[in-house]
Amino acid sequence: MKAQHGGFSASVNAMYDKAVALMDLSPGLVEKIRVCNATYTVRFGVRLRGAIHTFTGYRSVHSEHMEPVKGGIRFAMAVDQDEVEALAALMTYKCALVETPFGGSKGGLCIDPRDWEPHEMEQITRRFAYELIKRDLINPAQNVPAPDMGTGEREMAWISDQYQRMNTTDINGRACVTGKPLNAGGIAGRVEATGRGVQYGLREFFRHPDDMAAAGLTGTLEGKRVIVQGLGNVGYHAASFLRAEDGAKITAVIERDGAVHAEGGLDVEALREHIGRTGGVKDFPGGTYEADGTRLLEAECDILIPAALEGVIHEGNADRVKAPLIIEAANGPVTAEADEILRKKGCVIIPDMYANAGGVTVSYFEWVKNLSHIRFGRMQRRAEEARHQLLVDELERLSRNRDTAWTLSDDFKKNYLRGAGELELVRSGLDDTMRAAYGAMRETWHARDDVPDMRTAAFIVAIGRIAASYQAKGL
Ligand SMILES: NC(=O)c1ccc[n+]([C@@H]2O[C@H](COP(=O)([O-])OP(=O)(O)OC[C@H]3O[C@@H](n4cnc5c(N)ncnc54)[C@H](O)[C@@H]3O)[C@@H](O)[C@H]2O)c1
Questions:
Q1: Which atom of ligand 1 is nearest to the CA of 76?
Q2: In angstroms, rounded to a whole number, what is the distance separating the alpha carbons of residues 353 and 334?
Q3: How confident is the model at residue 81, as a pLDDT?
Q4: Which uninterrupted H or E stretch holds 398?
Q5: Which of 5, 83, 184, 404 has the most beta carbons within 10 angstroms of its beta carbon?
Q6: Chain segment 120-148, per-residue pLDDT in tens
Q7: What element of type H or E holds 43?
């Protein structure tokens, strides 16, 4: 599905060039920020099922203006150097936009995880991790991966363990990777974080009537028709939250084996369970099946959420896309050519570097938690508890002195004293981040007549911050 002219990197660079043309930066700095610093390619063998199998993997470092560099590891057959370099570049811009103190990186392994048993995947993942760890391409201070397509908590736990076996005296070893399970140094809310960020980003859009007007939308998220491509980690969580908490209707889901649609809305939880059990959307009883799923990208809806692959909306189909609003949950789902076509049609695109930044934001919280060696929010909770206890004591004293009948219930005391747990802190930190980044992006979008869209605005904000970092520190 790489329907991109000149590849994914060329598409990202075309968008970058459009933004820097509106900025006052020296050509040398423009070039330095654009280029990918380094890409390491590894080919390694693993003995499986009685034979040696050779795998090819990559770790690309786009910008080290801040370290560690950060970016997921993708397991998919379509992984290649161009793809990881484009994804690494997007990580640089994304981290700058949401102000996480990281440079950009990305990794990938050419593999279809469905071809292998879990114990074989463990062997392959550990071996890939070993190759990267021994070159400091996984390291808490230098390069910190996370999940991406085809990987999740399971793979992150193996990578973390592999690093710690090879670096037994590194007290910060757990911070070498984020997206780990909770019982292996993860943080509450990381699995859902990218989908949650998509939801928060949409909520923020719907808080701004003039932004909605640009897409010809009115009202709230309630009842809006949403089409989602890819019901994986990001797509599922976004769809599930939007449906359950904002009242949106998921009218179609596009997956590898086709699509299902239902004008009245799909039961996302039942569909997820069906995909898990059968491997696809076919035969799902709650909707109509369509073998040519990609056609649903062009169906009537209010919001289109591509949450699978890059390049799915391209020169060849952009003109037929009817959604007035696209939120890019996936990285690079709209090519540079399609972006132009859609903008001319009046479609508003909430760009990937903002839309899917929830993952890296909560990864940052996890990294900080690992480095601080204390459960996230624990100190703060203790301080809050102490403060709340003072308040409760004082209220009780007052009530006694005035000889009134009211006393605080034990329930109230328990709940009041409990304070915010890790999940609440993570969610509020994510919400705050998404609001601040949206504000910076829209301010640039609206402040200047020559900034045509939100994506260009996002690039301008991100590049401005990276340039400032280079100018402050030198190269
Ligand atoms: N996981 C994260 O935290 C994270 C963070 C930021 C961005 N992203 C981006 O979000 C996208 C999805 O990542 P994910 O982690 O949800 O991956 P995932 O592997 O959990 O899910 C991907 C889903 O897309 C489906 N899919 C694959 N090929 C498809 C096709 N041709 N047509 C329709 N559906 C297809 C898969 O079956 C799967 O359900 C990627 O672009 C990734 O880079 C992920």
A1: 19
A2: 12
A3: 98
A4: helix 378-401
A5: 83
A6: 999 999 999 999 999 999 999 999 999 99
A7: strand 38-48
* Residue written as token pair 């370099």: 85
Q: Which two tokens stand for residue 190?
A: 């990381």
Report yes or no: 252 and 352 within 8 Å, Cβ to Cβ. no
In single-letter form, the type of residue at position 103 comes to G
Pocket test for ligand 1, best of 148, 151, 434 (most atoms within 8 A of CB): 148
Say how many Å lie between the CA of residue 149 and the centre of ligand 1: 5
Q: Residue 402: CB partners within 8 Å, gap ≥ 6?
A: none
What tokens were used for 42? 């590894």
pLDDT of 416: 67
- Mutation choice for ligand 1 from 233, 294, 313, 360, CB with most ligand atoms inside 8 A: 233
Query: Whole-prediction pTM value?
Result: 0.93
Architecture field, domain 7-192+435-473: 3-Layer(aba) Sandwich (3.40)
Backbone angles phi, psi at 463, to 5 degrees: -65, -40
Architecture of the domain delimited by 216-346: 3-Layer(aba) Sandwich (3.40)
Residue written as token pair 């795998």? 55
Residue-wise pLDDT tens digits, 139-195: 999 999 999 999 999 999 999 999 999 999 999 999 999 999 999 999 999 999 999
**Peptide linkage before 68 cis (omega within 30 of 0):** yes
| Cα 108 to ligand 1 centroid, rounded to whole Å | 13
Distance CA 139, CA 134 (A): 9
Q: Which of 92, 149, 312 should be mutated for ligand 1, with most atoms under 8 A from CB?
A: 149
Query: What separation in Å is there between the alpha carbon of 393 and the centre of ligand 1?
Result: 51
Residues 6+ apart with CB under 8 A from 130: 162, 166
Q: Which atom of ligand 1 is nearest to the CA of 309?
A: 41
| Domain boundaries of the chain, sorted by first residue | 7-192+435-473, 216-346
Cβ-proximal residues to 276 (8 Å cutoff; 6+ apart), any chain? none
216-346: same fold as 7-192+435-473?
yes
Name all contacts of 373-382 with Cβ < 8 Å and 24+ positions apart. Answer: 373/171, 375/422, 376/187, 376/188, 376/422, 376/425, 376/426, 377/420, 377/421, 377/422, 377/425, 380/425, 381/419, 381/420, 381/421
pLDDT band at 474 (very low <50, low <70, confident <90, very high): confident
Helices H, strands E: what count in the chain? 16, 13
Report CA(428)–ligand 1 centroid distance (Å).
Answer: 25
